[in-house]
Amino acid sequence: MRALVSREPATPPESRLVMPVQSFRSWKASDRREPAAPRDWKTPWLKRLFVFGGGLALTAYGAWEMYHVVSVSRTTSLQYVLLLLFTINFSWIALAFTSALLGFFGVLFGVGRAERAESLKHRTVVVMPIYNESSARTFAAVAAIRESVEATGLGEHFDYFIVSDTTNPDIWVSEERAFLALRERLGPNSRVYYRHRPKNHHRKAGNIADFVTRWGGHYEQMIVLDADSLMTGSCIVRLAAAMENDPDAGIIQSLPLIINRNTFFARLQQFAARVYGPVIATGLAMWSGRDGNYWGHNAIIRTRAFAEHCGLPDLKGKPPFGGHVLSHDFVEAALIRRAGWSVYMLPDLTGSYEESPPSLIDISVRDRRWCQGNLQHSRIIGAKGFVLPTRQHFATGIMGYLASPFWLMQLVVGILIVLQVNYARPEYFTQEFTLFPVWPRFDPERALRLFALTMAILLAPKLFGLLLTLFNNKLRRAGGGAIRLILSSLIEVLFSAFFAPIMMLIQSGSVFQILLGRDTGWNPQRRDDGSIPLNDIIRRHRTHTVLGVVTGLSAFMIATALFAWMSPTIVGLVLAIPLSWASGQLGIGLWLKRRGLLLTPEEGDPPSVALRANELQTEFAQAGFDDADGLKAIHADPELRHAHELMLPDSHPRRRGEIDPERAVAQAKLVDAETVDDAVIWLKPKERMVVLHDRALIGLLASLPAERAENAA
């Protein structure tokens, strides 16, 4: 059976689609398609008026109150700066509050429910792009998803495509071995395909574009996953049916919930996303309407529309603001919406899952890339033809990272003002005659009321999510009961407050690095539970700790009131090292889990697809593909070697006189090697990739003996 499976083509015949590069500078309104079902195309003006009008009204009220706080006497320049920074930061949380309030009522009254699907007309492909991931994890997820789809009775409408951009030679070979094993397991008509791309040009966006241009013509629509995604068969079928029933839908986004997380920090995120996330997502979906956004995974996309309108151009200049588009998902949603297709979310569609980074440091690594991608959107937000809500999505993403340096500046200005009050010599004789010195003063009662208002609207979305979970009998029981849910929310709020100033400094540093022209690159994401060495934690957070100590001592020496005001920020920074250490601890997370704290409904009642994926991952891991040396595996198994060669793309003939140095070195090492062990030791990672891409060099590798002749004798 294995020999037959290995000879089955790893990919179907190509069915190409043209994917022209789009322009951000030119666009004709006449190029926008007319809706096929205009009656269903309703713009939620009242909801937008509520969210943005309410947010504006709250911001105006907060700014007015802040003005009166600082204008008890003559207002200084620093106080005007404080007023400006406060207004910017307050507008951000005010808009989040009104959107969450809308979402609260939306969840309460059950808006946005997806209909069940009894039949399908078209073929859909489930695409999973991977990049240096564990093959046991990713192929177990694909197998579990496929089983779940088959259980719906509509499995014949779906294919599965793993598109790899892996650059690690050992992981590449492990992917191929896992793919062949999965094919053998499923037997004929598996409809599971695999492609490895020699060069990861344009990263994930380029990976998806390569698939669309080569095989997209086979499929009416595609469901794009991430390497840590899981979706139930019911969710996938309902997404496909929703797109079939809506001829104007270009992208339909599901709401992925976080599952399978056990470290302390990941459990905080998992709980917050599950309890508060639906409120925030529902509010966003309600006011966005058909002008929604795309998050890059767990969504269904109309393939031809994507091909025709989502070819991403390179931005002029060098990274971080130039080069290829890093956060491609927002831009793809904007382009497909510009063309007249709708983009929207079904936040109440259950069965969509993902995972999250296990520690504070891990999330900061991912956040650095997201920060660069979102700030890069400042060059795209003004593109011609984008609808206003699309620009708002870009603005929200940009502000999500600028909020941290704005908050930092607000704290610094506040310290300077208090310092001025306590130590600066009053200026008695100014250009304008006054009877009193120019001295910054505040209204303490108004300041206290404004602080209470700020905290109320900041925490309200969390309260909305908690109330809705408590109101739902099934969710409340699955989440550990009312008392445990309330205690879990208090833990989440408390530690989020401690982690917030650390993330504020990390994000501020990222913004400043990007403004200075430093590119982030694209590192593989660490997904497994596990701690980080203490030395690395100290190195990453020692500056935060020192800054917290200096700020605390300075604030206490200036004024005890200032120290009290800044104490949450100071505590978070002073404890940055132990907090970061605790964030990645599996033991702390499991201790809380055993006591029913930070428990999500998906843990109390695990989805079957997640249980099956975990079971298959354990089974696949026992095969040892992820632990094996790729070159040795290719050398030892002729069937694997033959299958690997079949999966390689056709090589381009080399022009005479053109010598690839890495290939020349790799060939020389293989010629000089007496055993395969010599080759394994001598070949560097890039040279290994050269060997694995070259049929002639693979032949040289295969000709090497497994051990020296004297040892064999």
Strand content: 5-15%
Estimate the mean pLDDT confidence: 92
How many β-strands, per DSSP? Answer: 10
Strand order of the largest sheet: 3-2-1-4-8-6-9
Radius of gyration: 28 Å
Distance between the termini: 35 Å
* Count of DSSP-assigned helices: 29
Largest sheet: 7 strands, mixed
The stretches of 5 or more residues where confidence is low (pLDDT under 50) are 1-6, 432-439
Oligomer: single chain
- Secondary-structure-based class equals alpha/beta
Overall outline: globular
Helical residue percent band: 55-70%
Short description:
This protein is of the alpha/beta class and 713 residues long. Helices cover 59% and strands 6% of the residues.
Entry keywords:
alpha/beta, single chain, 10 strands, 29 helices, 59% helix, 713 residues
Write the topology of this structure.
Blueprint: H1 2-7, H2 45-70, H3 77-108, E1 124-130, H4 135-150, E2 158-164, H5 169-186, E3 192-196, H6 203-215, E4 221-224, E5 230-231, H7 233-244, E6 249-254, E7 257-258, H8 264-275, H9 277-288, E8 299-302, H10 303-309, H11 328-338, E9 342-346, E10 352-354, H12 360-376, H13 388-423, H14 444-471, H15 473-478, H16 482-515, H17 534-558, H18 560-574, H19 576-583, H20 586-594, H21 601-604, H22 608-621, H23 630-636, H24 638-647, H25 661-672, H26 676-682, H27 685-693, H28 695-703, H29 709-712
Parallel strand pairs: 1-2, 1-4, 2-3, 6-9, 7-10
Antiparallel strand pairs: 4-8, 5-10, 6-8
Helix pairs in contact: 2-3, 2-14, 3-9, 3-13, 3-14, 4-5, 4-7, 4-22, 5-23, 8-16, 8-20, 11-13, 12-16, 13-16, 14-16, 16-18, 17-18, 17-19, 23-24, 23-28, 25-27, 27-28
